[in-house]
């Protein structure tokens, strides 16, 4: 990681790359989202593809860290130390004396520790569902928070038949499709991304 940080400092420093020097946390947001999405896609493409894409995700971590370093707001060691301390704090069954019966209790403890870190202050639903998530993923997380039932094919068909031919009607059907996916244990965002990738693979290359 230190070598990557050194390269980024060179790119951002005097005599470096004009494009890299112009970037800000805000301007890099689309790239951070894109690289994370490409890394998620690479899971299905094999270990080498995943390793390559994780490198691009790591680049984003280094890029933001070097920008912050220059602004005097935070540095990479703070980023690394923060996540290490968080992992240790949220795994008392590994690094402490807490006993757990299984993964469900691990998740329950994790949520309790997160709440304690906030001083017991509640978070709004909007804060718990990142706006940058894909629309299907965001709907799935929202349904889970809202306690919406996982419905089946019959409910999806009913929603399709009842929905008006409009933007709101399409949204209702998509929400019903997400609930159907949840009932099957399928991640709708990943499923649609895989389907789209398969379709793209069948399309002809662009001619010059």
TrEMBL record:
Protein name from the UniProt record: MazG protein
Any one GO BP annotation for this protein: UTP catabolic process
Recorded superkingdom: Bacteria
Organism: Deinococcus radiodurans (strain ATCC 13939 / DSM 20539 / JCM 16871 / CCUG 27074 / LMG 4051 / NBRC 15346 / NCIMB 9279 / VKM B-1422 / R1)
Gene3D superfamilies with a match to the protein in the record: MazG-like
Pfam families per UniProt: MazG
Chain ranges of the NTP pyrophosphohydrolase MazG-like domain: 23-95
PANTHER family the record matches: NUCLEOSIDE TRIPHOSPHATE PYROPHOSPHOHYDROLASE (PTHR30522)
Signal sequence range: none
């Amino acid at each position: 990681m230190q070598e990557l940080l050194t390269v980024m400092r060179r790119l951002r420093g005097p005599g470096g790359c004009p494009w890299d020097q112009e970037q800000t946390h805000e301007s890099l947001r689309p790239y951070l989202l894109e690289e994370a999405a490409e890394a998620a896609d690479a899971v299905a493409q094999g270990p080498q593809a995943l390793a390559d894409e994780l490198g691009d995700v790591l680049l984003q971590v280094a890029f933001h860290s070097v920008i912050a370093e220059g602004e005097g707001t935070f540095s990479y060691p703070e980023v690394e130390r923060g996540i290490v301390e968080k992992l240790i704090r949220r795994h008392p069954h590994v690094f402490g004396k807490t006993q757990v019966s299984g993964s469900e209790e691990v998740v329950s403890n994790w949520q309790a520790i997160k709440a304690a870190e906030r001083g017991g202050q509640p978070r709004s639903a909007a804060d718990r569902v990142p706006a940058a998530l894909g629309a299907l993923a965001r709907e799935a997380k929202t349904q889970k928070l809202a306690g919406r039932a996982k419905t089946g094919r019959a409910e999806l068909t009913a929603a399709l038949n009842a929905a008006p031919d409009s933007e709101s009607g399409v949204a209702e059907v998509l929400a019903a499709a997400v609930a159907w996916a949840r009932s099957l244990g399928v991640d709708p965002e990943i499923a649609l991304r895989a389907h789209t990738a398969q379709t793209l693979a069948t399309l002809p290359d662009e001619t010059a």
